[in-house]
Amino acid sequence: MTSLENLKAQVRFLHEIEAKETIEEAKSKAENIIREAKEKAERTRTQKMEEKSKDIEKKGQEDLARTKADARNKILSLRFQLLEETMAEFSEYLRKTVENEGRYHPSLNSLIVEAATKLSGNEFEIVTNSRDKEFVSENLEQLKNRISSMKGQQTKVRIGKETLDALGGTVVRTMDKKQIFNNTLEARTDKFQKESGQKIYEMLFEGVEE
Amino acid sequence: MSFEQVGDLVRLEKEAEQKLVRAREEAAAIVKKAEEDAERLLKEAEEEDYDSFFKDRKLQIEGERKKIEESTDKEIKMLTQLANKNKKKAILFITNSVLGE
Q1: B chain contacts of residue A40, beta-carbon cutoff 8 Å
Q2: Interface pTM (ipTM) of the complex?
Q3: Is the Cα dihedral B91, B93, B98, B101 positive or negative?
Q4: Is B57 within 8 Å of A171 (Cβ atoms)?
Q5: Nearest to B8, CA basis, from A69, A116, A188, A3
Q6: Tens digits of pLDDT across chain B (101 residues)
Q7: 0.80 exceeded by the pTM?
Q8: Does A47 touch chain B (CB under 8 A)?
Q9: What Cα–Cα distance (Å) separates residue A156 from each residue in A124, A126, A174, A197?
């Protein structure tokens, strides 16, 4: 080989080497770029999956908790509503029962006697609604005897001048008006609801497992 | 070295330089494509529909929710029937108590 050809060969060789190296470097750089991108994409996927999983679980549990709370409220409202309906029907039934004098009058007598025995002293005034006034007047002597018997002493009993705006029952007070006992049906209903509301509740839903 | 030989060498040098330029352009294209692919990979990872991986869990939760609602409806029906059945007894009990019987 002449020195010129040798020189040419060297020039070609050196440039080819440089070109090859340039391509190889570029390929290597490209591989790194892709590898890093794949790793980063994988990290992104993992992170997004975790976030999504937590998000779905959180929303799901919130949804279930809300559904359970709604269910509890529905049941409670229903129980309350059924109780209210029962009390409303009771009021109507009581009103009809009071119209049945054969049943109501003995009860009225008992309510008057009970009220008087709750008070101390021996002189009482009985107040009723206008409808019951006549019945009580006619039975005043009998009532006096029952009250005296219950209290173990002689008593004086009279009808009050006022009339009650009540379905039935009575208000009994001492004649000096210092003591009073409200035994109207309304007062007794209120008292009953306060003291025995739970019992009605239990009766109404008897057989239900809480 | 003759004038022609020098000219030969210069031409050869130019050709080799051009090849090198092409190699550099090819290298730049390789890197550019890799960068574009990388960008696409990252975009895909960002925009993937991750909800679709949790369809079963969502269905399971929805099932639990429906179960609670169905159970509530059953309880409402049962309580209403029970209250209607026991109402009369309760009303009589209250009436007797209020009348002091």
Answers
A1: 42, 45
A2: 0.78
A3: positive
A4: no
A5: A3
A6: 788 888 888 998 899 899 999 999 999 999 999 999 999 999 999 999 999 999 999 999 999 999 999 999 999 999 999 999 999 999 999 999 999 98
A7: no
A8: no
A9: 6, 11, 10, 37
Cβ proximity of A91 and B92 under 8 Å: no
| Pairwise CA distance, residues B14 & A34, whole Å | 35
d(CA A15, CA A27): 18
Residue in B closest to A189 by C-alpha: B98
* Beta strand extents in A108-187 (DSSP E only): 123-127, 156-159, 169-174, 180-184
Chain A segment 49-108 residues within 8 A of B by beta carbon are: 49, 52-53, 56-57, 60, 63-64, 67-68, 70-71, 74-75, 78-79, 82, 85-87, 89-90, 93-94, 97, 103-104, 107
Within chain A, which residues score under 70 in pLDDT? 1, 207-210
Of A89, A104, A107, which is closest to residue B89 (Cα–Cα)?
Answer: A89
> Which residue of chain A is at minimal alpha-carbon distance from B19?
A19
Token pair belonging to A2: 């002449």
